[in-house]
Amino acid sequence: MKCTVLKEKLVDAVNRVMKAISSKTTMPILTGVKITSGSDGITLTGSNSDISIKSFIPLEEDGNENATINTPGQIVLPSRLFSELVRKLPNDDVHIEVDSRLITKIISGATEFSLNGLDPEEYPNLPIINENDVFKIRKDLLKDLVRQTVYAVAVTETRPVLTGVKWIIQDSRLSCVATDSHRLAQRSVAIEDAEESGPHTLVIPGPSLNELSKILDDDDEQMVDIVMTNNQILFKSHNVQFYSRLLDGNYPDTSRLIPSDSKTTIDLGTKALYHAIERASLLAKEERNNVVKLRAEGNQVEISSQSLELGRVYETLVTEKFEGDPLRISFSAKFMMDALSKVDAQNVRIHFAGPMRPIIIRPIGDENILMLILPIRTF
Amino acid sequence: MKCTVLKEKLVDAVNRVMKAISSKTTMPILTGVKITSGSDGITLTGSNSDISIKSFIPLEEDGNENATINTPGQIVLPSRLFSELVRKLPNDDVHIEVDSRLITKIISGATEFSLNGLDPEEYPNLPIINENDVFKIRKDLLKDLVRQTVYAVAVTETRPVLTGVKWIIQDSRLSCVATDSHRLAQRSVAIEDAEESGPHTLVIPGPSLNELSKILDDDDEQMVDIVMTNNQILFKSHNVQFYSRLLDGNYPDTSRLIPSDSKTTIDLGTKALYHAIERASLLAKEERNNVVKLRAEGNQVEISSQSLELGRVYETLVTEKFEGDPLRISFSAKFMMDALSKVDAQNVRIHFAGPMRPIIIRPIGDENILMLILPIRTF
Hints:
nine-stranded antiparallel sheet, DNA_polIII_beta_N (chains A, B), DNA replication (chains A, B), 379 residues, 29 strands, DNA-directed DNA polymerase activity (chains A, B)
């Protein structure tokens, strides 16, 4: 293998695939980044047991030359070292040359690295994805979907399926739901160009979705192609392919968790409520459970918390709408702040079905988003 | 105590004094911040066994009102909580009121905190400083002095006096020197308005100087008043007082460490050399000792390093001046990078007195700065 490539393109590509590479792996070859130079460009690959990322540098792009291939070939290089050294090379051009003993020369300006490469034949093949079930979604919408659901997945492995987000693709809609059994987040959106062989249900690991969000660049209006199989999902964006394994197991039916009735409904400014809870949490988090109290009566909503050692805090918000019974309820400050921080709307409507029943938070103006948190008994 | 103060002024003052407050202390009262409201303004104090910081908020400044005092008094509040909550208060004004049981109300907008204060009578007095020996130095020069010397102090306590920087004030000059016995940094500057009772030598703990640098704001042309006593040093800048204890013990005579002869002298671009060593260090740091090699002959300087596992790196720099014998020498990449990163000049002159004798680095154009590192035997 012998090629020359623009440093900035190489830096971008390495940064992306590094997201899939873990230093803790049972397969040493997977600590490396695989570099393949072919007739149309250079592909970098990183992989762990859950996700794999391919980042492609085309020979030419928008009329600019990115790379020249002298001899096609492939090599695997230690990823952490390679990503650091590429960033620190002195010149705009990087020349890469691999000899028959896998010794890889990386030359830029007056700098010459000579690295011991790893055997690319040992690098596992990525899953072969059959592109039968495909749909498209705008990149910014995909990022929003992930952000507004993935925070609610379980982090403990007690029920592994709950560490993922359930996606249901049906009738040109994608519905996402996540729950750790103390809270829940769901959102649905319309999708485009869906080629479906009937409805699909799949559970994507939460950490995969977090990494996906990080590698999607800011070109928000672009479409992402999503390919589904039984055990893998593939996201294809501009020059990037992101593979994730899917989770096995039956995801619980979450619709039964959501109360259909409401005893008290209040409307509040999203930010005002968030900041009031954040301040109350300053004392609440010094106690073990980070619980804040909410009392609502008339158009007054009082947020409070206390710490035996440190003191108390009270804050009164004025609600723009109050319906139903006066209310006293307690909940996790963290869970409420997590939910509110995902809301883009100026105001939220909160439904309380009773002091020990789930609290439902909805952004006013978007019926496709629903967040739920369970209260905590303190009164 | 009862007063009202601008939130932004309070945030600034708390951030400053927090630098002196440690959560690990044998005196619980010192985990708190002391607030004193007097007739001319509000003073915040933070302290640990090494340093104390006072930050003063005058009632008025530049024609703007900062604070109103209703009742003078003092209180000590848990510092971490107080600094977080002040930042998160909703309004520009903060009202503070302390009752006879030390319960402290902090009110801003619709938020009301009620904190359990600590007894200010238990707060230790700051050292009383006799202002006999005083001099002035420009703030930006003081920051440069600290930056260019403190990095070379010892971090282990084998010889406690080496964890400080030695300051000698004599004949209207301040000379600073630091060494951990593997490297050394020194710089001298002219000082102003010195009222000295003879020459002074004092050793200031390195960590104190680092904290001092952090709390000095960017108003670089201001003068800092420096007051010396036998066991304390006091830095007085605009509305801030910074006290540090001094280190006991005899600081070694470092002048004997500096070779007066030179067998090889080379001039190099500061940044080019820094980056070449940084790249070589990528492989060197994978080995235990992070050692890079330098070979110089004619006008060529080769920087190299290798890791048995990963590979090698070579880089050739062209020197603008080469005098003396050809040279092969090895040294710590970290020590050389630490030194070069403190140089503002475009080029450095490096003197080598032999493969196992100290290396002297000087910025070209500033004779008042000298850096020394010991080589490491590898050839």
